[in-house]
């Protein structure tokens, strides 16, 4: 099983930037110079290994990215966005998957904030700031007198995930790459903290595969975006470019719905194709663990909840609030393997590119630093 203890965590980046801005008590353990303004730009789906493999398509990013970060488990957008928004790993912020069970409310799709079973809206049953009640990095910045701004797609402005992870920030909704660059530079022109987000590289990786022609063409646009922001950085501004996960092309799929041995004793599924939360019937965890290990073999790391927690999958600490959201059994895919549910998750099951697991291709992302 891969170990990344010596690699800084994505959650350290914003506390380090806030520390560089002089916010008391903030220190992510990353050596950053004193700054007048700071921004973290998250490129969804840009893995460290993918960037290295396609360096010619992203010369600016490649030159700036001198070291990797690890994103923690699961390597998925909800967890990564929450790491930016809290400065913590999933065991504390609680976004433990693309989908996960919240006791009393069923399985939540954290991106859509809907029931993963029937699609019903869960914002009433699961208020975002109750699911993620910890102070956000944006609230901490604002409390220190630093204006905090989120520069992201206008479509995400009022989503539940935005409320859960970005409360305390002014939301600047944008519509295209030029808009994103311009608004980011506008924020950085005064003493402020900014989080900017770009989603389309991840989208094309899912649809066509990471490294596909479409993905590479989008990476070139991303590199131009970064170059535009770097060229316009005002004096005293710091830009940190990161990602929430890498991605692999899934070449072997196992349909859980057609595998009776993997359904026995299981009452619900969470997670995604590369990282599964398996919620068991009472008393069935040991048998389910054994069955999943037997069927999946070397294609996945399979651990019961307490062993996954002890192994540090969800960070150094797992709160009592978060613990029940983790599957009784957790399965993380190796290689290019995927655990699909073709009927229950038809769209997700058919995506070419996937992520969520512990492999270096998914866990490691760039940390690229530029200074004005």
TrEMBL record:
Q: What GO terms are given for molecular function?
A: hydrolase activity
Q: Which residues form a coiled coil?
A: none
Q: Which domain of life does this protein belong to?
A: Bacteria
PANTHER family, per this entry? BIS(5'-ADENOSYL)-TRIPHOSPHATASE, ECTONUCLEOTIDE PYROPHOSPHATASE/PHOSPHODIESTERASE
Q: What is this protein called?
A: AlkP superfamily pyrophosphatase or phosphodiesterase
């Amino acid at each position: 099983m891969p170990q990344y203890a010596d690699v800084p965590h994505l959650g350290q980046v914003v506390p380090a930037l806030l520390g560089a801005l002089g916010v008391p008590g903030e220190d992510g353990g990353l050596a950053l110079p004193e700054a007048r303004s700071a921004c973290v730009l998250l490129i969804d789906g840009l893995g460290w290994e993918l960037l290295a493999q396609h360096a010619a398509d992203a010369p600016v990013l490649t030159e700036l990215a001198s070291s990797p970060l690890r994103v923690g488990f699961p390597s998925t957008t909800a967890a990564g966005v929450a790491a930016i928004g809290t400065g913590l790993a999933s065991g504390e912020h609680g976004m433990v998957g693309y989908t996960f069970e919240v006791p009393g409310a069923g399985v939540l799709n954290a991106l859509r904030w809907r029931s993963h079973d029937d699609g019903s809206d869960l914002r009433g049953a699961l208020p975002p700031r109750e699911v993620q009640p910890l102070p956000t990095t944006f609230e901490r910045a604002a409390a220190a007198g630093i204006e905090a701004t989120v520069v992201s797609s206008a479509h995400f402005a009022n989503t539940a995930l935005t409320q859960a992870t970005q409360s305390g920030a002014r939301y600047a909704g944008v519509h295209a790459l030029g808009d994103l660059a311009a608004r980011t530079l506008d924020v950085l022109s005064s003493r402020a903290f900014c989080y900017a987000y770009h989603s389309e590289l991840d989208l094309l990786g899912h649809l066509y595969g990471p490294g596909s022609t479409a993905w590479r063409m989008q990476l070139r646009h991303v590199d131009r975006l970064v170059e535009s922001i770097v060229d316009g950085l005002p004096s005293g501004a710091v830009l940190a470019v990161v990602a929430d996960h890498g991605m692999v092309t899934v070449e072997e799929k196992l349909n859980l719905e057609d595998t009776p041995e993997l359904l026995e004793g299981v009452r619900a599924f969470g997670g995604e194709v590369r990282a599964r939360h398996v919620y068991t019937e009472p008393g069935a965890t040991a048998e389910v663990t054994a069955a999943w290990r037997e069927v999946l073999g070397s294609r996945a790391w399979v651990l019961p909840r307490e062993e996954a927690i002890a192994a540090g999958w969800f960070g150094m600490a797992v709160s009592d609030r978060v613990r029940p959201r983790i599957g009784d059994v957790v399965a993380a895919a190796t290689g290019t393997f995927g655990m699909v549910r073709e009927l229950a998750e038809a769209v997700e099951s058919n995506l070419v590119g996937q992520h969520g697991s512990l492999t270096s291709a998914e866990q490691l992302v760039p940390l690229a630093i530029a200074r004005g």
